[in-house]
Specification:
Helix content: 40-55%
Radius of gyration: 18 Å
Largest sheet: 8 strands, parallel, barrel
Shape: globular
Order of helices and strands: HEHEHHEHEHEHEEHEHEHEHH
Number of helices: 12
Number of strands: 10
Oligomer: single chain
Strand order of the largest sheet: 1-2-3-4-5-8-9-10
Structural class: alpha/beta
Distance between the termini: 21 Å
Length: 277
């Protein structure tokens, strides 16, 4: 998917919502446990109920890998279902890969060629050798960890390196890598005060923003400091939507929560001086 296609979807749906498909068998409705593939059945119901309210789905691969080959098969069925039934949706493999050379190339092939995701998250700690193999794929996007929402982010990411915070060094350096136009960045919603500085470095890039809702991030604050002329934001919500209910009505309740966020996003877009709906 091209960036232009993603922007078109945002304008059409008046939404920049990304729904995280982080499936825990201990949390899904009990009646699904009797099905042949509970993970896929859960995802399918969530997707069918919310696809018109969001522009992206983001399965966190750890929640599938934890169940071995069956979990991986559930992930494959999920991405195939999205691509076949809702091809306009931007898909993110939240895999946080970060190796080098041929290993990164193989990871890229796994997510881009075999599973046909539109994007994958990567860790940049090992430098361009770990990221450029992903960037080589046309119309595929590499979403690089920049400033995350976890407590440990302060261990390294905000540390001063020769007069500049490390996350700024990472952002600036990444712009020089081959095919850097395919880069997006992860920036946590709980770090809303940092968005102004981040936008000075990557004004036009899309930012994947976890942490709104359950982790305490403010959608209004993120949009105030992080939105650009094309919105440039994918706001992720996982638990707050997919686990809104663990009963028979789980899909309906998930839709209700997604609708609340979509409507809030639409209000922001309509009133924003940065973005023209």
């Amino acid at each position: 998917m091209t960036t232009e296609q993603l922007i078109t979807q945002i304008r059409t749906k008046k939404s920049f919502l990304c729904i995280g498909l982080d499936v825990d068998l201990n949390k899904i409705p009990e009646h699904l446990l009797q099905t042949e593939d509970p993970i896929f059945e859960f995802n399918k119901s969530i997707i069918d109920a919310t696809h018109d309210l969001c522009v992206s789905y983001k399965p966190n691969t750890a929640f599938y890998e934890a169940y071995g080959i069956k979990g991986w098969q559930s992930l494959e069925k999920t991405i195939n279902y999205i691509n076949e039934k809702y091809p306009e949706i931007f898909t993110i493999a939240d895999a946080k890969r970060g190796d080098i050379g041929n290993t990164s190339s193989m990871y890229a092939r796994a997510f881009f060629n075999d599973l046909d995701f539109d994007s994958v998250t990567v860790a940049p700690y090992m430098g361009k050798d770990s990221v450029e193999p992903f960037l080589a794929f046309e119309d595929k996007h590499t979403i690089m960890l920049a400033l995350t929402s976890n407590e440990g982010a302060f261990d390294f990411q905000t540390q001063n390196v020769e007069g500049k915070e490390l996350y700024k060094v990472v952002l600036e350096t990444s712009k020089s890598w081959k095919n850097a136009h395919n880069l997006m960045y992860v920036v946590g919603a709980t770090k809303a005060e940092y968005f102004t500085e981040i936008r000075k470095i990557v004004p036009d890039s899309f930012l994947l923003v976890p942490g709104v809702g359950a982790q305490g991030g403010s959608l209004a604050e993120v949009c105030k400091y992080g939105m650009n002329a094309n919105v440039g934001l994918l706001i992720n919500s996982s638990r707050g939507i997919i686990y809104a209910s663990n009963g028979m009505d789980f899909a309906e309740k998930a839709r209700e929560e997604a609708l609340k966020l979509q409507q809030e996003m639409e209000e922001i877009l309509v009133s924003s001086s940065k973005f023209q709906v």
